[in-house]
Amino acid sequence: MKAGEELPEQTYTVTRADLVRYAGASGDFNPIHWSDRVATSVGLPGVIAHGMFTMALAARALDTWAGGPGRVAELGCKFTKPVVVPDDDTGVEVVVRGTVKNVSDEGVHVSLEVTCGDQKVLGMPRAVLRG
Amino acid sequence: MPVDDSLVGRTFPTTAAYDVSAEKIREFARATGSEYDGGAAPATFPIVVAFGAMTALMEEPGIGIALHRVVHGEQRFTYTRPVVAGDELTATLTVDSLRQIGGADIIGTRTEIVDVHEKQVCTAFATLLHRGDDA
Questions:
Q1: Which of B109, B32, B31, B96 shows the shortest CA–CA distance to B70?
Q2: Radius of gyration of chain B from Cα atoms?
Q3: At CB < 8 Å, which residues of chain B contact A?
């Protein structure tokens, strides 16, 4: 990987079933991630993905770019916009893009962009991959 | 009611050991569509361990945190090494900072995750937004 390199865009489909599965695997059973009734009662448009699920998709893209798991030395983001997941069979698409910012002794610094529709859903997502 | 200022600098009791099994990693990897080749767990897997420590903070009586008012604002991980099956991990959370903005408390936390030899595996930094009654 070289500074300035644009990494291949990754597109992931997220359905309600994915959120249920993630809730079970992560132990985060907050009902805003599976109940429209609770989600709308706190002012959300509907059930939203766990922020950590969206972050996990960013990590998945990093593994793909790095050629396998275990090379992430640092990963961070802000949760800026919710990913609203409809109750249908289609779900929504989350797109992860990455650009290599620089390569140092620490590793490869990658700046990410994670979008759903035309909105960035993570703020300043970035990572360092071990060389 | 704002969160109690004395929270800053406070370290919460270390969580009970979390035994990381290959099946648990596989379940988490499958749930996030990630690859698991028997080696490193997915990068965000340590949240499973950190979550226990964060829950202890949020449920602590007398601090003034109401769980349904908490939003995850920011998350960052730094890794000394990846998590692997067979790890016994514990998490120790410290409250690093507390600010009030527009009726909301912004709580900065740092959770150190170590293995059975007390060697550092990962540090998870989480910012939690606690919305006040009127926010």
A1: B109
A2: 16
A3: 27-28, 30-37, 39-44, 47-48, 51, 68, 71-79, 82, 125, 127
- Which tokens go with B15? 């969580």
Across A43-56, average pLDDT: 96
Residue with tokens 């991990």: B89
CA distance A75 to A80: 16
The CATH number, out of the four listed (3.10.129.10, 1.10.357.140, 3.40.50.2300, 1.20.1250.20), of the domain defined by the range B7-131: 3.10.129.10
Residue type at B76? R
Does ipTM exceed 0.90? Answer: yes
Domain range list for chain B: 7-131
Tell whether the torsion through CA atoms of B20, B26, B29 and B35 is positive or negative.
Answer: positive
**Whole-angstrom Cα Rg for chain A:** 16
Chunked into runs of 10 residues, chain B (135 residues) has average pLDDT values of 83 96 98 96 97 87 78 95 98 96 92 98 96 63
A129 DSSP β-pair partners = A72, A108
Calculate the average pLDDT of chain A: 96
Cβ separation A52–B27 shorter than 8 A: no
Q: Is the pTM for the entire model greater than 0.90?
A: yes
Domain formed by A6-14+48-129, architecture = Roll (3.10)
Per domain, the residue ranges of chain A are: 6-14+48-129
Q: Which of B52, B43, B131, B74 has the alpha carbon at shortest distance from A51?
A: B74
- Any bridge partners for residue A127, and if so which? A75, A110
- The reply to whether residue A25 touches residue B41, judged by beta carbons under 8 angstroms, is no
